[in-house]
Design a protein that fits this description.
The complex is a heterodimer of chains A (598) and B (80). With 598 residues, chain A is an alpha/beta fold. In chain A, helix 5 links the parallel strand 3 and strand 4. In chain A, the strands form 3 sheets. Chain A has an 8-stranded mixed sheet with strand order 15-16-14-13-12-11-10-17, with helices on both faces. A 5-stranded parallel sheet of chain A has the order 2-1-3-4-5, sandwiched between helices. In chain A, helix 2 packs across helix 10, helix 12 runs parallel beside helix 16 and helix 19 packs across helix 20. Helix content of chain A is 41%, strand content 18%. Chain B has 80 residues and is mainly α. In chain B, helix 1 crosses helix 2. Chain B starts with a helix and ends with a helix. The chains are: A alpha/beta (598), B mainly alpha (80). At the A-B interface, helix 1 and helix 9 of A face helix 1, helix 2 and helix 3 of B.
Chain lengths: 598, 80
């Protein structure tokens, strides 16, 4: 909804919060349901109200538990029956500088202040550990914003007795914990308050009248920033950035002005701004964002512009270059198809409001940030939070290479008459085996991102995957696929729960970038092998239809399972008797974890 | 700004904030007259009214307002 996309008008959202919620809930969209416990050190009412709006807009339907006023520590340490039954998918701790109780006093020694710092920190760490033990779910914790006054003036930041100094050091301890503990995330209130303006942000009247630790006008921005972490954790990040060229990546029109006439480089303020934007876009690639071009241009002009010697980007930074005279909405849909992603995973960046409007209207769910004035491009994309990083897996870093290899594979496929011959020519090697710690993060990520090749659409948090990993009630498999074009990384996960001599398939997912490669058959072969070793006689598969997983409706049928149940909603249950099973994969060489050691 | 304009604009703000087009406020309207007007919604209302009239109420003013009439009086004095 345009009203809730960055840069939004907070005043409008504040005034219209009720009708916005009504509209969102009436749109009939299928949303992911998540339970969020909010432990507050100050009033949290409006924080939750706006958080709900932004999450609904991002495809998540939250249910909240809200602690009584300022009871965050008590709720975390001594959970009520109500809270335990609520069983949150996520805990958010809303504390601020107003909640620090052990601030240094000017007369204290360095040791005394250090002791206070440790005491303040210990209270939090104890709470995080308790939450992790109790709920096995991710935690989002605010860091601290700078205090609104500085007793010693500028020295407050550098002197150990200064409050600003104390807050910075406490933040440092929080970051250390975040670095060492998976499933723990910092909500950067320090940045957001500075960006908003600390003076307005910490207007004391809001604390003294309402016990809000920030001015109420700032809450929509605050909640939006928080919602970005949450939607990223639950797999709602965007994947690709489709960019226009003329007046988006450079100033001017390359077809009219010629390569020498476009503005990019170090000559003028305008050309420097475009250069800075190109550099920003290039670094997005490094965090795993797929770059594509969507421009009305002759192909050769587009390439010439991208080869401008003063530019930061190069044609091969882009996985797909759509430079033609087709309508842009068609090009976006084509791009999604070629990348095997949904159009709603694309962000479309174009300086032309008319093009933006067409794409917004024609392509459901695509994000279309406002791109007015090259000096605003970076901030508008950046604050939009489309590519918010929560878990940084090695695969994110390589994603562009992998998609590029995919496009090359499709090109090669066209030259083969026989599909099996084509598959054999790919020299595919897979590792399929039980989970190992180094891949747990990627496995978690896949369970949250896969929508299409996903029979049960069951989502797992990092802590839940950890649990499954440690339990002997499960047969777990991950599959990693390499071929002559490159390493696709971990692309498939299967989790089966053992019940006597039956194995119930809780999860069967695969990344769509390896569709039609017989990887699913290789996974099945291994699954049957492992099941037999554990004395399993029957494997039961389950398919629960969603708006997105039609492609696997007949997955188990294709494997040779028999359908045993089907209800009115299309949920189906399938069974395979594993006696006499014959291996199905003939095109992939499969190894186990021991092959990874070198 | 005349009183009629102030009440017309206040009315619009109240309808937005409480999401109810049947609301009509007058000088005597208080929180007791509007179902959803509790202490938490009061905060939203203050923010929306201040934005509408481009004024900033002091803490003292917010604390002492007893009805919509007193709110309108402050606006009449201060709004540009």
């Amino acid at each position: 909804m345009k009203e809730l996309e960055y840069p939004f008008e907070s005043d409008y959202i504040i005034k219209k919060k009720k009708s916005l919620k009504r509209t969102l809930l009436a749109d009939g969209r299928d949303r992911l349901k998540k339970k969020i416990a909010v432990f507050g050190g100050s009033t949290t009412h409006d924080i939750i109200v706006y958080l709900e709006l932004f999450l609904l807009d991002q495809g998540i339907k939250p249910e909240f538990y809200e602690s009584e006023y300022a009871q965050y520590w008590q709720d975390a340490m001594f959970p009520s029956e109500e809270l335990l039954n609520f069983s949150p998918d996520l805990v958010y701790i809303h504390t601020t500088s107003r909640n620090i109780v052990n601030y240094p006093a000017t007369a204290e020694s360095r040791e005394q202040v250090e002791e206070k710092l440790q005491r303040e920190y210990a209270k939090f760490e104890q709470m995080w550990k308790k939450i992790t033990e109790t709920y096995h779910c991710p935690i989002i914790q605010n860091n601290f914003e700078m205090p609104f006054y500085r007793l010693m003036g500028n020295k407050d930041c550098s002197d150990y007795r200064g409050r600003s100094n104390f807050v910075s050091r406490l933040n440092g301890l929080f970051y250390d914990y975040a670095e060492k503990n998976e499933g723990f995330y910092i909500n950067d209130i320090n940045f957001i308050s500075a960006s908003y303006g600390l003076r307005q942000w910490s207007d004391p009247s809001y604390w003294n009248m309402y016990k809000y630790a920030m001015c109420t006008e700032a809450i929509p921005e605050f909640s939006f920033n928080l919602s970005n972490i949450i939607k990223s954790l639950f797999g709602k990040n965007k994947k690709a950035l489709a960019l226009d060229l003329d007046n988006t990546l450079w100033g001017g029109v390359v077809g009219d002005d010629g390569v020498d006439g476009i503005q990019i480089g170090q000559e003028t303020g305008v050309s420097q701004s475009y250069y800075e934007f190109q550099s920003y876009v290039k670094s997005l690639k490094d965090i795993g964002v797929i770059l594509t071009v969507c421009s009305k241009n002759d192909h050769e002009n587009a390439i010439a512009g991208l080869n401008h010697p003063e530019g930061a980007l190069r044609p091969d930074d882009f996985i797909i270059i759509k430079a033609n005279w087709e309508n842009k909405d068609r090009n976006i849909i084509e791009t999604a198809k070629e990348l095997n992603i949904f159009p709603d995973a694309i962000v479309f960046a174009d300086d032309n409001p008319a093009e933006r409007e067409i794409v917004r209207a024609q392509v459901q769910g695509v994000a279309v940030p406002q791109m007015d004035g090259v000096e605003n491009y970076i901030v508008n994309l950046d604050r939009g939070g489309y590519f918010e990083v929560t878990n940084f897996s090695a695969d994110d870093l390589k994603r562009n290479e992998m998609y590029k290899a995919n496009v090359e594979r499709s090109a090669q496929q066209a030259s083969f008459a026989d599909y099996v011959e084509y598959l054999l020519s790919l020299d595919m090697n897979a590792v399929i085996d039980d989970f190992i710690p180094v891949y747990l993060q990627r496995i978690t990520q896949l369970t949250n991102k896969s929508n299409q090749f996903n029979v049960t659409t069951k989502r797992y948090t990092a802590t839940k995957i950890e649990e499954v990993y440690k339990s002997d009630e499960y047969i777990r498999l991950y599959g990693k696929l390499t071929d002559k074009f490159g390493d696709n990384g971990v692309v498939s996960v299967v989790i089966g729960k053992i019940d006597g001599d039956i194995l119930n398939i809780d999860l069967w997912i695969m990344s769509c970038r390896v569709l039609k490669r017989d990887m699913e058959l290789a996974m099945l072969d291994r699954l049957v092998e492992r099941a037999a070793e554990r004395g399993i006689k029957t494997i039961k598969g389950y398919y629960y239809p969603t708006a997105k997983n039609k492609m696997v409706r007949e997955l188990f049928g294709g494997f040779g399972f028999k359908k045993t149940e089907e209800d009115a909603e299309g949920n189906t249950v399938w069974e395979l008797d594993i006696a006499g099973y014959e291996k199905k994969n003939n095109v992939i060489t499969v190894e186990d974890n021991s092959s990874l050691k070198n | 700004m005349d009183s009629k304009t102030i009440y017309a604009r206040l009315n619009k703000v109240f309808r937005d904030v409480f999401d109810d087009d049947d609301i009509t406020v007058n000088a005597k309207t208080t929180a007791n007259d509007i179902e959803d007007w509790d202490s938490l919604e009061h905060i939203t209302l203050m923010a929306a009214v201040q934005k509408e009239f481009k004024v900033k109420f002091s803490m003292g003013e917010i604390a002492s307002m007893k009805n919509v009439g007193e709110m309108a009086d402050i606006i009449a004095k201060r709004a540009k």
